[in-house]
Design brief:
Blueprint lengths: L1 E10 L11 E2 L1 E14 L4 E6 L5 E4 L10 H13 L7 E7 L9 H16 L6 H16 L6 H8 L4 E6 L5 E5 L4 E7 L9 H17 L9 H7 L4 H26 L2 H17 L6 H11 L4 E7 L6 E7 L3 H16 L4 E4 L2
Parallel strand pairs: 4-6
Antiparallel strand pairs: 1-3, 2-7, 3-6, 4-5, 7-8, 9-11, 9-12, 10-11
Length: 348
């Protein structure tokens, strides 16, 4: 039996910038996905995970079916497409990374499975190759037009430090998170799916904006570009304004984190949420209410929606000694206001 695991991730700041060649700042969560693989003598893949229907398919017959098994099929399809020899296998999956909460559960599953299969079939896979293969399957077979941040974070990120990634160059730098600070993540109770139309539509809008501006990607855009585009395409101009501002917020957040300036970090989280709500238009009234409930807690410095939007979770930065109490109080206030069950994911 071959075993492997990978963490979930929470992105401190830098949302919808990864597929625009921008800057991101994820960190690993304490929740992990674990996979155990037993090799078969045929070409059948069979996967099990508690709470989900069992998955079976033959190698070479991978196809999108719209359930969790797509991520298993994505891994075998991606490996085979690059010439790696596989046989059938049994996979038992156990995960504490919540699905649909914006913590990259699919990337954790794909990376853990790739690691296990690499051992099982003696494949030559370094860490960069694992991230690339996981992303290729997610993008091409699952149909989620995500950038590579989730997969890179599942491979390289560590709890207790932020991973500053330049998505254009691939350069990465580790930035310690002050132990006096803690991350709070509360699930809104509204699941989102990256393969859904709105997420992919936002990416298409970013590509259209870059094309209209004559740029390789929105990483190269400026505030003046957004102003110029607003005359003919106001919605695209708002997308540009978010990406330009968010990249700058990542730089400022890294500097504030290094300086131990929690208040500045919190203000940047608040600004990120406002931009995601108003310029990128991926928030919901429930996410706004949850962010407000977190900001109302004395221990919290700032909060923003995290993940692709249209559901999922809200992230806050808080004093470590009061983070858990703040998270649970905010979840209660959110549930009272919206009627939805807020679930505390961090502190775990």
């Amino acid at each position: 039996m071959y075993r492997a695991e990978a963490p979930g991730r929470v992105n401190l700041i830098g949302e919808h910038t990864d597929y625009n060649d921008g800057l991101v700042l994820p960190t690993a969560t304490p929740q992990h996905t674990r996979v155990a693989v037993v090799v078969r003598d045929d070409d059948v893949v069979h996967a099990r995970s508690e709470g989900f229907p069992e998955v079976s398919f033959r190698l070479g017959d991978e196809r999108r079916s719209g359930d969790w098994g797509d991520h298993i099929a994505a891994v075998t399809w991606s490996l085979r497409s690059e010439g790696h020899a596989l046989r059938g296998f049994e996979a038992d999956v156990s995960s504490r990374v919540p699905v649909g909460a914006g913590l990259a559960s699919s990337a954790a599953l794909e990376v853990a499975l790739l690691r296990a299969l690499g051992e099982a079939f003696s494949l030559s896979l370094d860490d960069r190759a694992i991230a690339r293969l996981a992303h290729r399957g997610e993008h091409d077979l699952v149909g989620a037009r995500v950038g590579t941040m989730d997969q890179l974070a599942a491979v390289f990120a560590r709890a207790g430090e932020a991973l500053f990634i330049d998505m254009r160059s691939g350069a990465m730098e580790r930035v310690p998170i002050d132990e006096r600070l803690a991350l709070v993540v509360v699930d809104s109770g509204i699941a989102h799916a990256h393969a859904a139309g709105e997420y992919n539509r936002r990416r298409a809008e970013c590509e259209a904006a870059a094309k209209a501006l004559g740029l390789p990607a929105l990483r190269d855009a400026t505030v003046n570009d957004a102003t110029r585009l607003a005359v003919t395409a106001p919605a695209l101009a708002r997308r540009v304004r978010h990406v330009v501002g968010e990249n700058e917020r990542v730089r400022l957040f890294v500097a504030a984190l290094r300086a131990g300036d929690a208040a500045r970090c919190g203000a940047l989280l608040d600004a990120s949420h406002a931009s995601l709500r108003d310029d990128f238009e991926v928030s919901l009234p429930e996410l706004d209410a949850l962010a407000d409930a977190l900001r109302a807690q004395g221990a919290v410095f700032g909060a923003r929606l995290v993940g692709g939007g249209f559901g999922g979770a809200v992230l806050a930065l808080a004093s470590a000694d009061r983070a858990a109490a703040a998270a649970h109080e905010a979840a209660r206030a959110y549930s009272s206001r919206t009627g939805r069950a807020g679930r505390v994911l961090l502190p775990a």
